[in-house]
Amino acid sequence: MMNKSLRATLIAASLSLLGAAQAWAQVEVSQAWVRATVANQKATGAFLQLKAKSDSRLVEVRSSVAGIVEVHEMKMEGSTMKMRAVDGLDLPAGKNVELKPGGYHIMLMDLKKALPAGEQVDLSLVFENRDKKRETVDIKAQAQAGTKPAAAAGHDAHKH
Ligand SMILES: [Cu+2]
To answer: What is the pLDDT at residue 153?
Structure first.
């Protein structure tokens, strides 16, 4: 049998651990949207803005609508726009990091269903801080028809 004061101490300890886990957990996610898809389209991009209170890194993204989710970087290579998967995205403290068409973006692949405009898409963003502590932020991003044609062309040119 655990005595009462020991149990109280353990509870206090676990509460303070929770507190510590949440203390750094402050990446602001805003302006999230997903490019709407048509039937049978297998991939699309998700875009949002991230602002971390302390140096962090976006290390993983999951979504129930996609079999594969990657963080992509888009870059000009010679005269062609190319995309490639990166293993994470640095979020320097206090800096607004924008994931947008033509730049960094979240690639949703192996889509399980069409995402018409207006559809709410769940995204789980996993952040890691300098001490390798992770936190997951769950958000909803609304599907929108592409509003930036140039970037849309870049995306379509890329074959997954
Ligand atoms: Cu991509």
So the answer is: 40
Residue 131 gets which letter from DSSP? T
- Cβ atoms 83, 71 nearer than 8 A: no
Q: Is residue 16 classed as helix, strand or coil in its secondary structure?
A: helix
- DSSP letter at 147 equals -
Q: Is 107 contained in some domain?
A: yes
Q: How far apart are CA 128 and CA 25, in angstroms?
A: 9
**Torsion sign (Cα): 136, 139, 144, 149:** negative
C-alpha 25 to ligand 1 mean position (Å): 27
Q: Quick count: other Cβ atoms within 10 Å of Cβ 4?
A: 8
Structural domain boundaries, residue 108: 26-157
Question: Which residues are within 5 Å of ligand 1 (an ion), measured at CB?
Answer: 72, 83, 107
pLDDT tens digits, 61-86: 999 999 999 999 998 889 998 999 99
Alpha carbons 74 and 58: distance in angstroms, whole number: 17
Å from CA of 36 to ligand 1 middle: 14
Decide if 91 is inside a domain: yes
